[in-house]
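Moderator note: this is an archived Q&A kept for reference. The question asked for a predicted structure of one protein chain; the sequence and the answer are reproduced below.
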Amino acid sequence: RVSLAIGNDYPQPLQIKGLSIGGRAAETTDPAELKRVMELMLKRYPEYAAMPMPGPEVIAVLRITPEIVSILDYSKGFAHTDLVAVGETDLPKHLGSSRHTWLAPRAA
């Protein structure tokens, strides 16, 4: 099992938007898939074209299959998240929305 987060730095907490993904990882050794990964890396980071590309004996390429996706959108309220389950058929099932109240004032 693995988790990953995709986000950015925001100057204000209520601007935060991002993804948190939990899933399963498996190493891929398929030559066509490895070639495609390297092509995508070079497209995103063209400066690496001057460097020799490492072979599969040097690096591991992992395929991550998402199971739960948490969509963060603090513009809807502090710590607002939407949870989506991703199954074998890739049809998402919405699990619900929530807003945490960690910093809410307590009643006296």
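Archived answer notes: The longest strand covers residues 61-73.
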